[in-house]
Design brief:
The complex is a heterodimer of chains A (354) and B (326). Chain A has 354 residues and is of the alpha/beta class. Chain A contains 11 helices and 12 strands. In chain A, the strands form 2 sheets. An 8-stranded mixed sheet of chain A has the order 6-7-8-3-9-10-12-11, sandwiched between helices. In chain A, a hairpin with a 2-residue loop joins strand 9 and strand 10. In chain B, strand 1 and strand 2 form a beta hairpin. The chains are: A alpha/beta (354), B alpha/beta (326). At the A-B interface, helix 6, helix 7 and helix 8 of A face helix 7, helix 8, helix 9, helix 10 and helix 11 of B. The structure holds adenosine-5'-triphosphate (ATP) (2 copies), iron/sulfur cluster (SF4) and magnesium ion (MG) (2 copies).
């Protein structure tokens, strides 16, 4: 299916590349977000969920960073912080060299960074026609010709404006709605698009259509993606680098082929071997990870994974492992004492463990 | 085949009302005692409706059902009253995608399992509670004595799904229906639940129909696969046969659209278009508008069903076409 036609994005501006090609489009430093929730037996105490607790990474211009990790590990919270939907408690967000809060306003950030959610239905206003939904954000941002913009974007995501512009969200299929959400995000001419489980609710056949579309748009508009998904096959297909989170922290970051070949963090190892087998003759025999994730209100000391890790030793309970390059590769980072020769972990540096 | 457990013959399900939907069209399906079957198919293809019909959960006023269903010798479509109640839960039970919807938020999970057992087995409260405890143990919930008294909101998604399974199996049904029970879970929890179901199935010797649209999940749980499209079964066989030698163009498309092993950046072979609306009963191959092999004959009449071996079938005139080299 060919969804790209000759239409060009209307309105102002190829975005100005302020920081130059080598300046990462996004740098996140020690980002924190703790949510107050009611705790204690009677629910009277205020306690904090450490949803995101010291997350740092960067995203290069034009690359796709995949984010994976157990449910509740803080992927969506990280995404919402980056697009400015919720306020950070601490840390820095630097967009194309400009820090949010000092040089960069929230409004500018929101214009450069857009988000597409999982639930294609809930994120569209049921009372707005599709063209109005797409045009809305653009007109709020004061971009020129919002309706014309909406129509050419619809054509670009493969939906004929003549047939679909006047329809309401309930009058189109899930896959079509997700294209509308993508068109709506693109209406602001963003440079970074954060896709949070954006294809998870789609059928496999429709998922493939939307992934092809995302690849086309990236090539054509020079977009940068952050792609969050539970589906490791999808992440592998679309990402240049992969970031693994566990309980509010980053435990591993690596180029996609490197982490596929070898997971440096024991949690990543379990996650990757939890993928269902595609071969009836080699079905999975034992679950790679047992038990539930620990409570993010009161996370384990030291390495947060030590309660479920088969390599855990005394040092893992007391010392927090730093996220640092593993010996074999400078662009492969992991936060585990096994990779730190000075950690005092008995098996540190031993080959062939992971 | 082993002794028959489920025998669905020429099933039609049509929803009437503001909009007519021909959800199931001439569906025939057999399952032997103790067999596990995955129903694979895209959204709207009728997987859930098939399960709900088996459990007689559809609204009678707005549903027209034709055909025959036998489960363990019982004529399901004529059941009513007490017999229907006994059939649900004791003979057949179901696990849903959203455990939160199936569990009552105001009762402890132990009380809910015990109540289900008491209703069907007529045993004392204490006996029922100890059955509940035994079930929580079997689904490998840690510290089951404590969890018995927990309310649904106090449990994680994976644990709730285990409770759901404990509830469904408490009365030792002959047939378990599972409607995408792991779709909402993340990968590490999903594989735990799939392997648990596999073990319990063997332990209890029950038959399982497992609905999913994820091929990997189907491979992990089932010995047989039936592929649905537009309310019909378009292909059926053992898991090996269907995965290693898919014959229907829709099944082949599904396998090709699957990302497993596709190189990064390579274009995906997406199946173009969308499934039909089912406002009218299909009179030709429903997949023809999206099919790369479609011919005039496909658009003119219902395709013939090829039966290359006793329990293998493909509803397509091209069932024997060589797999295109791509
Ligand atoms: N508004 C909120 N108030 C309180 N707690 C919250 C809030 N939002 C998120 N949390 C908690 O923060 C933690 C991280 O949640 P988040 O949604 O970021 O996880 P996730 O990785 O996106 O999970 P999933 O894969 O299930 O989408 C969880 O424990 C969650 O319950
Ligand atoms: N109660 C109902 N009234 C009217 N139409 C219905 C009803 N239940 C289901 N349908 C329709 O019947 C068709 C089959 O639905 P079904 O829920 O079985 O699909 P499914 O294969 O389970 O899809 P999914 O993967 O999305 O769950 C759909 O077109 C659906 O809209
Ligand atoms: S630091 Fe210790 S507990 Fe943590 S992942 Fe490494 S070996 Fe396991
Ligand atoms: Mg999330
Ligand atoms: Mg369904």
């Amino acid at each position: 299916m060919s969804v790209i036609d000759a239409t060009v994005l209307p309105g102002p501006e190829a975005p100005i590349d302020k920081g130059g090609p080598n300046q990462p489009l996004l740098i996140v430093k020690d980002l924190k977000k703790h949510f107050p929730v009611r705790g204690g037996i009677l629910g009277r105490n205020k306690v904090m969920v450490q949803a995101v607790d010291g997350v740092s990474f960067s995203v290069r211009k034009g690359e796709t960073l995949g984010i994976v990790g157990e449910s509740g590990c803080g992927k969506s919270t990280t995404a919402r912080l980056i697009v400015g939907l919720i306020e950070k408690d601490a840390g820095e967000i630097i967009y194309d060299g400009e820090g949010l809060g000092d040089v960069l306003s929230l409004r500018d950030l929101r214009r450069g960074v857009q988000m597409v959610f999982q639930d294609s239905y809930a994120s569209l206003n049921p009372r707005l026609t599709i063209e109005d939904s797409i045009a809305f954000g653009a007109s709020v941002q004061g971009l020129s010709d919002p309706l014309g913009r909406a129509h050419s974007l619809m054509a670009r995501v493969g939906l004929d404006p003549a047939r679909f512009a006047q329809r309401y969200p309930h009058e189109i299929s899930g896959g079509q709605r997700q294209r509308i959400n993508i068109a709506r995000a693109l209406a602001m001419s963003p440079r970074l698009v954060v896709l949070d489980e954006a294809v998870s609710a789609l059928d496999k056949s429709v998922e493939a259509q939307v992934l092809n579309l995302l690849a086309d748009l990236r090539a054509e508009l020079g977009l940068t993606y952050i792609f969050i998904s539970h589906d490791l096959n999808v992440v592998r297909y679309i990402s240049d680098r992969v970031l693994v989170m566990y309980l509010g922290e980053v435990v591993e970051v690596a180029p996609v082929d490197a982490i596929w070949a070898r997971q440096a963090h024991p949690y990543s190892g379990s996650l990757f071997s939890a993928m269902p087998s595609m071969d009836p003759d080699t079905r999975t025999k034992k679950p790679p990870l047992t038990g539930d994730p620990p409570n993010p209100i009161n996370p384990p000391s030291g390495c947060r994974f030590h309660t479920r890790c088969r390599y855990a030793e005394a040092v893992c309970k007391t010392r927090v492992p730093a996220l640092q390059p593993i010996a074999a590769a400078p662009d492969h980072l992991a936060a585990c004492h096994l990779h730190d020769l000075s950690s005092g972990h008995e098996k540190a540096g031993k080959e062939g463990l992971l | 085949m082993k002794e028959s457990l489920v025998d669905i013959q020429n099933l039609d399900v049509r929803f009437t009302g503001a909009r007519t939907v021909h959800a199931i069209n001439d569906l025939t399906l057999n399952l032997g005692q103790g067999e596990t079957l995955a129903l694979l198919g895209e959204s709207g293809s009728g997987k859930s409706v098939t399960l709900k019909t088996l459990l007689r959960l559809l609204p009678p006023k707005r549903t027209e059902i034709g055909g025959k269903i036998q489960v363990n010798g019982t004529d399901v479509l004529t059941l009513s009253g007490k017999a229907l109640q006994q059939y649900r839960g004791a003979e057949v039970s179901m696990v849903f995608q959203e455990p939160a919807l199936a569990l009552d938020p105001v009762y402890s999970v132990g009380a809910q399992i015990a109540e289900a057992v008491r209703r069907h087995k007529g045993i004392s409260r204490d006996e029922a509670m100890s059955t509940a405890l035994d079930m929580l143990r079997r689904v490998r919930i840690p510290s089951p004595e404590r969890r018995l008294r927990n309310f649904p909101h106090e449990l994680s998604g994976g644990m709730l799904q285990r409770v759901m399974i404990a509830l469904a199996l408490a009365c030792r049904p002959r047939l378990l229906l599972a409607d995408e029970p792991t779709t909402a879970l993340d990968a590490t929890v999903q594989i735990q639940i799939l392997l648990l179901l596999r073990e319990l199935q063997r332990e209890f010797g029950m038959g399982v129909i497992f609905v999913t649209h994820d091929i990997g999940v189907a491979v992990e749980v089932s010995e047989r696969i039936a592929v649905m499209y537009a309310g019909q079964i378009v292909e059926e066989g053992t898991t090996q046969e269907v995965i290693k030698d898919p014959r229907h163009p829709y099944t082949r498309g599904l396998m090709a659209a699957n990302l497993h092993g596709v190189a990064r950046g390579e274009r995906l072979n997406a199946i173009p278009g969308a499934p039909p609306s089912l406002e009218t009963r299909p009179a030709a191959c429903s997949f023809a508008p999206r099919c790369p092999l479609a011919e005039d004959a496909c658009r003119a009449t219902l395709p013939p069903v090829h039966v290359p071996s006793p329990r293998r079938r493909i509803a397509c005139i091209h069932a024997n076409a060589p797999v295109s080299a791509e």
